[in-house]
Amino acid sequence: MSPLRGMSPLRGMSPLRGMSPRGRAGAGLAPLPGAGRAGAGQRGRPRARQRGRAAPGMFNRAVSRLSRKRPPSEINDGEGHPSSSHQTLKGTSKWATSLESLLEDPEGVKRFREFLKKEFSEENVLFWLACEEFKKTQGKKQMQEKAKEIYMTFLSSKASSQVNVEGQSRLSETILETPHPLMFQKLQDQIFNLMKYDSYSRFLKSDIFLNHKKSEEQEENSPEAQTAAKRASRIYNT
To answer: Which of 56, 105, 206, 212 is the most exposed, fewest CB within 10 Å of its CB?
Structure first.
């Protein structure tokens, strides 16, 4: 007996329409056109939605990891104290980092001048310091007076502490007619580079620097200094 015998088809509709693909296969019928593609599309859509939902989760986890990272200032050593690499350098340790750091320290400037004086080139650092002070000068009259003093001391052909700068033979007092804070900047930069690549490296190897460094180390290792450091440590940890 045919499996379709006795079925009452709906009006205007084929008796086989609406059957599931599995039912059609059981009846020995071929699947409807496009049925396989439709099923595949339906099965594919939830996966696409799942991939779309995974991205925000990955982003939130990455943000959470970044938020847990500490800034360098909060990095401590094994005992909970700030790492020594982030502590403020002082004395010869600071001077050895750069010429800029050396010139920021009054004691460093004093020792550097002492060294340059032995090398007969103290006028270089004196000119640099005078230019730095000139930049802070207020008022046209005061600026003219200070500019003239710098010119007569370091730049003129009759200067008592003449510095060696490029184009010095072309310099004249005409530059003093319209003074401004940066009028000596190029000459100051020349002298700075001369000290940086010549005198400064020798200063770090000089007896003046090494002896001062040795005296610092002796003071740090003295019983008084160690006692003070322990006392400060106890206060810090309470």
So the answer is: 56
Find the CATH number of the domain harbouring 168: 1.10.167.10
Report the C-alpha gap between 172 and 103 in whole angstroms: 29
CB atoms within 10 A of CB 210: 12
- CA neighbor of 126 nearest in space, from 144, 103, 145, 156: 103
E strand or H helix at 19, and its extent? none
Domain count along the chain: 1
CA angle 60–62–64, rounded 5-degree value: 70
113 phi and psi angles, rounded to 5 deg = -60, -40
Cα separation of 39 and 36, whole Å?
5
Residue range(s) defining the domain that contains residue 204: 91-232
pTM for the model = 0.58
Dist CA 43 CA 45 (whole Å): 6
For residue 70, give both structure tokens: 């500490």
Could you list the pLDDT tens digit for every one of the 238 residues in the chain? 444 444 444 444 444 455 555 555 555 555 555 555 444 444 444 454 444 444 555 545 544 444 343 433 333 444 444 444 434 788 999 999 999 999 999 999 999 999 999 999 999 999 999 999 999 999 989 999 999 999 999 999 889 899 999 877 677 888 888 899 999 999 999 999 999 999 999 999 999 999 999 999 998 887 765 565 556 556 656 6
CA separation for the pair 60, 53 (Å, rounded): 12
Q: Residue 76 pairs with which residues in a beta bridge? A: 82
